[in-house]
User: Which sequence fits this backbone?
């Protein structure tokens, strides 16, 4: 056997905290890694998934069987690095076949120190996680493969649970930075980086915002001292119940009258700021093919998701914020399981969605929400109401154009 052939056949094992084991072949870096085992249902966009900071602390399994054929490139990076704790695929591509590819997926995983496994029955693993729920896990290859099953399981059981973890400090920028508006200027938006993606910042700039990205360690007073025209909370990893300080920052901004838009983690933090609770989903929503209904229009959008937690709010009526922010409605609901996928404040200029309207890999059904945000800020500057801005007909027209 050549060295390359030997490398392709090095053994590896995925160990779940309930003792279930899947033996396969080493992929990417060799060694051991620990994290929460989750599955992502997108058939494309694996590079965007790998470089999404929201996946920090997770071992991600792709349900699509053939991964890696389009390689990796610098243009599609959603951040400066790969964030997943580990990567699981069934059939990795042996040949990169795309004119945009600059290197292979395997090479990028190895260079980034991301331990992976291939050649396992990913359908069986998906069905197991759907039944038992996401759980702690570990991938062991190289010297770590020689550990006894008991030693490997002990390492998994001693790893941290995702519930209760605050990971914002691990993924946020250390220093603030600014991106200038590229569209007709609306104003300045302060973006709290909880794991923000590159495409999000680009879409905000295109809508006319000077984008001031600030670290998650910023205080409420420091946010207000920037005198932004609006506030945006990004996506990010971890348990929203462990982010009390960010909730207080948001409450201070809302009381100061700042227009607000949040996505993913930012939706969960808005829910908490308004007085709702959050809870952990059994196996979460991850992938670029999730159906969501806009309750105001009845329109169904196919959206990109990556969340293991959700807001606990009534979907059948308008609620009153227990924190004094007025009336709140659930604006979007997941059609698979009725999970809250969006919040709209009727008495203050604030709304959020649980999914990813910036999805660079697609679909782009929800990209119009950035237009709604810009229009909400314009109306606020003119003294208009938040609910009018959220249901702005121009936003609906933009949505139809995107879907066309």
Assistant:
């Amino acid at each position: 056997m050549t060295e390359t052939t030997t490398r392709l056949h090095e053994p590896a094992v995925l160990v779940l905290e309930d003792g279930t084991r899947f033996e396969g072949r080493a992929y990417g870096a060799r060694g051991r890694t620990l994290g929460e085992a989750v599955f992502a249902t997108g058939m494309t966009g694996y590079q965007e998934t790998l470089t999404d900071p929201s996946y920090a602390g997770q071992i991600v399994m792709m349900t699509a069987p053939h991964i890696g054929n389009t390689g990796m490139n610098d243009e599609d990076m959603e951040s400066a690095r790969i964030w997943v704790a580990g990567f699981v695929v069934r059939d990795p591509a042996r040949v990169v076949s795309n004119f945009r590819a600059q290197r292979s997926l395997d090479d990028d995983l190895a260079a980034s120190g991301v331990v992976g496994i291939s050649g396992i029955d990913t359908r069986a693993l998906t069905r197991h996680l759907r039944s038992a729920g996401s759980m702690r896990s570990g991938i062991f290859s190289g010297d770590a493969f020689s550990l006894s099953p008991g030693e490997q399981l002990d390492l998994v059981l001693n790893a941290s649970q995702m519930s209760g973890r605050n990971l914002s400090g691990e993924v946020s920028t250390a220093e603030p930075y600014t991106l200038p508006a590229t569209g007709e200027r609306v104003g300045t938006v302060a973006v709290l980086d909880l794991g923000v993606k590159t495409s999000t910042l680009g879409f905000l700039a295109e809508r006319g915002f000077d984008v001031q990205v600030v670290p998650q360690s910023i205080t409420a007073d420091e946010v207000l001292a920037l005198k932004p025209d609006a506030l945006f909370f990004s996506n990010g990893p971890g348990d929203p119940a462990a982010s009390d300080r960010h909730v207080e920052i948001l409450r201070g901004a809302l009381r100061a009258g700042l227009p607000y838009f949040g996505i993913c983690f930012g939706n969960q933090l808005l829910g908490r700021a308004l007085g709702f609770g959050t809870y952990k989903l059994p196996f979460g929503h991850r992938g670029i093919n999730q159906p969501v209904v806009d309750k105001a229009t009845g329109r169904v959008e196919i959206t990109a998701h990556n969340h293991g937690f959700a807001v606990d709010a009534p979907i059948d009526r308008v609620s009153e914020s227990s924190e004094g922010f007025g009336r709140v409605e659930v604006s979007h609901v997941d059609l698979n399981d009725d999970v809250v996928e969006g919040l709209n404040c009727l008495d203050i200029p604030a709304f959020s969605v649980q999914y990813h309207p910036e999805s660079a890999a697609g679909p782009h059904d929800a990209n119009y929400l950035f237009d709604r945000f810009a229009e909400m800020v314009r109306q606020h500057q003119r003294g208009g109401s938040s609910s009018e801005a959220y249901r702005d007909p121009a936003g609906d027209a933009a949505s139809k154009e995107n879907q066309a």
Remarks:
- The chain is about 25% helix and 30% strand.
- The CA atoms of residues 135 and 269 lie 24 Å apart.
- The first strand starts at residue 11 and ends at 16.
